[in-house]
# Entry
Amino acid sequence: MKFIVYILMFLFGTVSFAQNTTVFDQANTLYTNGDYTEALKKYTSVLEQEEHSAELYYNIANAHYKLNNVAPSIYYYEKALLLKPNDKEILNNIAFAKNMTIDAIEIVPEVGFSRLIKKATNTMVFDNWAKLSVVLVVLFVLLFLMYYFSQSTGKKRLAFITSVSSLVLAFIALAFAFNSYGLEQKNQPAIVFAQESQIKSEPNLRSEETFKLHEGTKVQVIDTVSNWSKIKLSDGKTGWVVSDDIKRLKRL
Amino acid sequence: MKLIKHISILFVVLASSMTFAQVKFEAKVSKTKLGQNERLRIDFIMNKDGDNFEAPNFEHFQVIGGPNTSVSNSWLNGAHSYKKTYSYFLQPIKQGRFTIKSASIEITGVTYKTKPVNVQVVKSVKRPNDPYNVEGVASENIHLVAEISKGDPYLNEGITVVYKLYVSPNTGVSNWRELENPRYNDFWSQKIDTKGLRIQNGKYKGEDYRYVVLRKTVLYPQKSGKLEIEPLKLDITVEVPTNRRDIFGGMHMAQTNRTVSAGSRIINVKPLPEEGKPDDFTGAVGDFKFNVMTSKSELNASESLRATVEVTGKGNLKLFQLPKLTLPSSLEVYEPEHNEAIRTYSGGMQGSIADAYTIVPQFKGKYPIPSISFSYFDLTTETYKRVSSGEIIIDVIEGPINTSAGDDNLATANADQTEATLNNDQFAFIKIQANLKPIASNNFFKTTAFWSSLLSPFLLIPLALVYRREKEKRNADVFGNKIRKADKLAKKYLGEAKKALGHKEAFYIALEKALHNYLKAKLQIETSDFSKEKIEEILIERQVNEPAVKEFISILEHCELARYTPITTVEMQQDYEKSASTISIIDKEIQ
# Structure
């Protein structure tokens, strides 16, 4: 009985999967015909089925761009970039969408060693770093055993050197995994959805306004207190904003 | 005689003509209402001479002059008129309504009486009227009045102050000079030029006057509460008629200077209601229209366009800020040019103010000009009104694409997105492949599976060490090795027999079979030539020593025998061990 249920579930799963792909195709047709609103409805219905992909987010963002919705379009481009950070088409179109934003925020460039580390960290996601470290550890153990059991001096030497270096690499990979995980946890981007949002110095309405942000600007959420979020801009400015004014890119 | 006759005819004629004319006798007062400190003149006028004039006893009045008698005879175009007047000047003794009783006179034997005259005596006035007191006349006949259109305006609501100079018809004004100009603190004020002075006829306190509008000022109160409008003071040269006459009989006009002031006025300015005040309210009060326009909606990069933010209407146009246009940062925007086209009428300011922005897009793409709103206080409905401009999209058709990525997050994946070079400068089309995946993703990092797979390989190292040490130990131990080898052989061949230990029949069949199997494996002999002699021969041939071979044979024999004899379990055990040791010895010695 249980078995049949499992089979049925599996079947249904695949059926819904196939359905979503056809909905996606239908939405694409609507988009091509210029019916962006209807296309958006179809695309978001796929999202509601708890399925996503960089391509889906990218298409949603394109439809929003065509409808001149600044914040949603940037929001979905950024979501697509979270899944595919180096996709050229997405990077191209987000540049178009960013033209529509009002705030110009300078980027404080990172320099020196920390930049190198960050760059190296960002070559892989933390899961891959973790997998790599496991592989390296296994490699180390095998080589070590080879060293231990082999008879000839030459083989022994080679095995020892490679095993030790793979152990070192395994630790480095592990460190990167931790670093990447930490950065990933710290990276809580959000997009300003309110047309104009006041950024306050304290998380209450009485406090002074430090600056203003407009629709479509990307911020980092550092902290949240009840319905206020502490945000940081890429130029280093911080402040508090009502959480309803922004929309986070990652699920909590 | 004839002369007497003529004279009598003449008398008759004269007398008849006299009887033709009606006798009039009346009393006239200079005024019916006067102050206690003023004087009253009463004239008793008759048009025929009479006798026995009897004045009334002027009760409540004191006669301070008179009776003065005057007689006038005139012939006009042959008509004769006669007037005789008795005048009295009276000073009232107290206030109240009094009646001056009738006077009587006898004219040609008939007694005539005047009508009684009612006079009201009121409180003493400041200046007893003296018709020929120049100062008095001037002050009475010249008035400066400030007329205010609204006494309780809202903050920033326009009001007009009109200064009018009223001059009574019998006086004249030859010149004036402003002594004190009101400064209108707490007001925004603008003087409206009045072109020339036009003398108009109007009424002042019910009497006919001529007036001129001296100046008009539009005021916008800048503060709520009670505000004072300072008085306007003028020094006026007045011409007043006197009782002197020049040689032509015209009135001689006396000149005098007078200072007139329009009195200070208090205006109660109401503050604008706090309720429903929009956030973007900058103080505009009136009736306005709000517009945001762009000169083009489609253009190429590096061409310019103008965006105009304009407010037109009536109200305090000069006194509020236009809302600022917020534009995408990727557009080049120059400082706006401010234009004002405002006329100030007596009703207030009217016209338009506009900010014109020059915008030069640098990159291709769509640029929305977000909707901006303008709020003002509508005086007719006394509510705030908010007008929003719609969103305008500027479409830049041709031009380079903006490749500088807007911002960079703190970390992660797109750290090097600025280095992404873009080959095509078109807005890319959607992607066709869905590649859908479930949203819920499971991370591998920091799970138990991760930790165990990371650490478990290390366990292999101590295991390997232990294994190797054990192996070495074994290699070192010769006797132990022997035993182990025997055990191993026994295990291999005598396993079946060991299982059957205790069951006599089965045990010995298994044991025999095991021994045969062993030989078959070791010596490669066929089962067919499996006789004891043959076995013995082969084993000796293979360098196995005599006693061991004997032992082996004896076991085989015992196996056959045991099937038919009673055997105990202990014996079975002994046989098992014996065969095991024999096998191991043979195995060792066999070549």
Notes: Chain A has eight helices and eight strands. Chain A touches chain B through 84 residues (CB under 8 Å). Residues 186 and 247 of chain A are 16 Å apart (CA to CA).
